[in-house]
Amino acid sequence: MNKKYKYALLLGIIPWIAYVVVSPFFNYPNPLILGMPPLMFWNVLWLFLTSLCLYGAYRLEFSSNSGGEANEH
Amino acid sequence: MNTDTIISLTIILAWVFISLAVGILAGLRRKFNLEGYLVSGRGLGLMFLYVLMAGEIYSAYAFLGTGGWAYSYGMPIMYAIGYGALAYAFGYFYAKHIWKVGKVFNAVTQADYFQVRYYSKVLAIIVALIGITFNVPYLQLQLQGLGYILNVGSLNTISIQEGIVFGMIIMLIYVYTSGLRGIAWTNFLQALLMFFIAWIVLFAVPYIQFGSVSNMFNTLAQVKPQHLVLHPPLGIAWYVSTLILCGLGFFMYPQMYPSIYSAKNLRTLKRNYVLLPLFSVFMVPVILVGFTIVALGIHLNSPDEAVLKGVAISYPSWVLGLAGAAGFAAAASTASAIILTLAGLLSKNLYAIAKPSASDKELVLVSRISVLFFGLAAMFLALYAGGRLVSLLLLAYAGITQMFPAAVLGLFWKRMNKYAAISGMLVGLAVVTYLKFGLGSNPYGIHFGLWGLFINFIVTVLVALATKPDGSFEKFREKIATAGE
What we know:
- The complex is a heterodimer.
- Chain A has helices at 3-22, 38-62, 68-71.
- Chain A has 3 helices and no strands.
- In chain A, helix 1 (3-22) packs antiparallel against helix 2 (38-62).
- Chain A has one domain (3-64).
- By secondary structure, chain B is mostly helical.
- Chain B has one domain (3-389): Up-down Bundle (Sodium/glucose cotransporter).
- Helix content of chain B is 78%, strand content 0%.
- The termini of chain B are far apart.
- The A-B interface holds A 8-9, 12-13, 15-16, 19-20, 23-24, 27-30, 32, 34-37, 39-40, 43-44, 46-48, 50-51, 53-55, 57-58, 61-62, 71-73 and B 75, 78, 81-86, 88-90, 92-93, 212-214, 216-218, 221, 225, 228-230, 236, 239-240, 243-244, 247, 265-267, 270-271, 273-275, 277-278, 280-281, 284, 287, 483-485.
């Protein structure tokens, strides 16, 4: 497993932390953020950020000078 | 029949027949081998792969059920927004192994993967049986949802029973003729319509009723303040354990496997997981409609009506026809993929093991006949045993997730062998069955499925340590290491 793939794995763990560990701390009825209760706002925001994390992982894995994983193509 | 009814009905029927035509055209004049039929010849590009997966993942439950849940319980529904993202983050790293297994060993089902990794026909049969058992009620629920949606969308001109029969026949025709290729093509239309209806029609509902989303939530805070937070029995322990269970269990559903195999290469597969969390955003308007109905103080006898109710009170009645078509899309895109998956398990993993001499042509025929068999079986269950299987359905995620330790540990741990895989799975299933039907509660508020997974994991590891590694790991890794393009 090369270094870049390890960083990619770390990026993949971030959404798990955001939802499983952090999101319960947003369990309050207010303030409303963009009209939504805090927990809803956080969970929706992280749909976008999860895509971003995985895109980061994808770029790390398949950038032009990376090792093993990208050579499979 | 008044004009509104005729317009609604025309919209729904037009949509259903367009789906049918596209589904049939996708497979017309093609001669399928088993790979072509079940995994579309491993040739799907990003766009078709994306809509295939989005369509099969986001079912009638996502389109109606999440709104119903928001209506009944409030904030606990946030688990549904979260677990998809968790599953895709996991799948981004997991699915490539599955895809490689497909490429090297010509695997077309989930049970194929287990058989390849553990060299055990018994395990393959167990996995196939678990997949079939836990998916039939899921399929039945899609059909009941479909009948219900066609009924409401057509302003009661199509009865629920007629809706079930009609929807099923349409699906069976295109799955029978075109296999996964037909599903990918029709799901392209279905996903588009679901997205459009959610964002244009449903998103406007809180604005029409309250002027803005904040006003709606402010009203809700007065009408039902407890709806704005997680609270026991669906408190934080339940929320977190359900997120974990569903996030991990997601890729144990057998219908995930054919769609992974169907990707034309690894990059396409990975890009697909980068983009899938964005499709989950479409549940936001659905959930907002559920909250709107609560804030309005409307009482519903059946909570799953919440979304259609929101449409009915905010729009002229023909818009219900559009919502009905979208509901058909959500249910049909998921149900068709499940039917084909079950047919694959039956033909490739049960029939072919019982009769090893079966030719590829024979297996395609067996698959096609199984498509009809599962479709009709689910249809009769939906017609005559409606609602009685809810407890089985709640068991589905809990049961399916028990394949997780064997599926994932097997990829990395050389001590994993078939004995560990089989004993962990069976113990996990026994635990969830006991907690669900014996004890009947979630100990410490933690989802019973996660308890099963926990004990399953311990048993798997212990048995793996107590038995000798059988060398299956090395053989397996060596072969998939060579997989690329």
